[in-house]
Specification:
It is a single chain. With about 130 residues, this protein is α/β, with parallel strands linked by helices. The chain has a single domain (about 5-130), classed as NAD(P)-binding Rossmann-like Domain (Rossmann fold), CATH 3.40.50. It contains 5 helices and 7 strands; from the N terminus they run H-E-H-E-E-E-E-H-E-H-E-H. The strands form 2 sheets. It has a 5-stranded parallel beta sheet, with helices on both faces. A two-stranded antiparallel sheet has the order 3-4. Helix 3 packs parallel to helix 4. The radius of gyration is 13 Å and the shape is globular. The model has no long low-confidence stretch (mean pLDDT about 95).
Length: about 130
């Protein structure tokens, strides 16, 4: 699955979405929402961000998501990938595990790919959307 195909998917869990408008995660989520994506905030310290119900973890999301977009340190990525695998086993999705600009993890890639997910590392979904649309 290439990036153009990934961008056609519409439901994106944003792990590490901040309530602060100054943070990159907030700007990216705001942009995606403005472009008709369904954003699903994942932040254990919040109940709502950008008008959307917030979930404490990926595995706590009770419905399928297409993309798990990670805004957490690279060291956290393997555990998040494992949660993505758990919800994929439960719902048949996510299809994509996306690690934002500056985030790379061979271990997370291995976990997600073993479960049949496409993986993107060290790229910003907002920048890719701007470039391809």
């Amino acid at each position: 699955m290439n990036i153009r195909e990934i961008l056609k998917l519409r439901t994106i869990a944003i792990v590490g979405l901040s309530r602060s408008p100054e943070k990159d995660s907030f700007g990216v989520a705001e942009y995606l929402k403005a472009h008709d994506y369904r954003i699903v905030p994942v932040n254990p310290a919040a109940t709502e961000i950008l008008g959307e119900k917030c979930y404490p973890s990926v595995k706590g999301i009770p419905f399928p998501v297409d993309v798990v977009d990670v805004f957490r340190p690279s060291a956290d990525a393997p555990a998040i990938a494992q949660e993505a695998v758990e919800i994929k086993q439960r719902t048949g999705r996510p299809l994509v595990f996306w690690m934002q600009l500056g985030i790379e993890s061979a271990e997370a890639r291995k976990i997600a790919e073993a479960a049949g997910m496409a993986v993107v590392e060290n790229k910003c979904i907002k920048i890719e959307h701007e470039l391809l649309t």
